[in-house]
Amino acid sequence: MGKEIERKFLVSGPAWREAVSEQHEIRQGYLCNDERANLRVRIVDGEKAYLTIKSGRGLTREEWEYAIPLEDAGELMEKCAGRLIEKTRHLIRRHDLTFEVDVFAGANEGLVIAEVELTHDRQEFERPSWLGEEVTGDGRYTNASLSQHPFRDWT
Amino acid sequence: MGKEIERKFLVSGPAWREAVSEQHEIRQGYLCNDERANLRVRIVDGEKAYLTIKSGRGLTREEWEYAIPLEDAGELMEKCAGRLIEKTRHLIRRHDLTFEVDVFAGANEGLVIAEVELTHDRQEFERPSWLGEEVTGDGRYTNASLSQHPFRDWT
Predict the structure, then answer these.
(1) Is the pLDDT of residue B65 over 80?
(2) What element of type H or E holds A117?
(3) How far apart are alpha carbons A138 and A147 in whole angstroms?
(4) pLDDT at site B4
(5) What's the CA gap between B152 and B110, in Å, rounded?
(6) Which of A51, A132, B59, B138 could form a disulfide with A12 if both were Cys (CB 3.0 to 4.6 A apart)?
(7) Does A76 touch chain B if contact means CB atoms closer than 8 Å?
(8) Which positions in chain B touch A32 (Cβ < 8 Å)?
(9) CA–CA dist A140, A146 (Å, integer)
(10) Which residues of chain B make contact with A34, given a CB cutoff of 8 A?
């Protein structure tokens, strides 16, 4: 099990783009999603595939992840119709931290979210100028929720 | 992906016990379960662990299965409190087929179900005398359902 301590922010302006060191195309879908856990299948850059179980809400979540054959992931993704997320993930390394800036496409186009993974839940860190409002714990911004209630349908 | 074509029956009497060639202790739980798919974690004989995704209902279901570390399975099983199944699985080989007779324990004690996996959905087979009423397609008898609505609570 991994413990994921992650804070999530909106992003203001395009200044973050100058600092990107790496980017990846992510397609993911949710095979099941209930009050206890969700099951995600993810394909990165059309090449690598993972099955991930996440449990818990908010700042600290538990996570189990397994690499799976790409062919399986393709089949599983077909079961996720209507619960898909497409995004480009940009990695920005600052001091000891990596910020992931996700630019969503498809039904979530227009949404840009930055996440930073911390090692403990009260860890201080220097905020880049482009980091906007914090949305950690706002359930609407979880990818599982966005896959079923996409940004473009928000009123 | 595996395609699982499986028929399921109640069992009448103890005559099947004479034909058992192998048996295994199974503990399993459901991490998530919704209308599309369910995610099962299973530990066999306290030694081997698997993660299984099942999709579909009734006679023919799709299935993806991955071996996972026993330690992970123990952690995942803790997330399944209130959605657990304990049973002893008995294998009975007859001609080219294997019948699995599951004797349930815990909240499903008293329930005995025989399953047989077929290679196509209209396959004929000789029924052992101890095979009772067919319950294929009766959703109450799926293990996912039994984990949440156990046999002892049926009225």
Answers:
(1) yes
(2) strand A112-118
(3) 15
(4) 87
(5) 8
(6) A132
(7) yes
(8) 32-34, 36-39
(9) 7
(10) 32-34
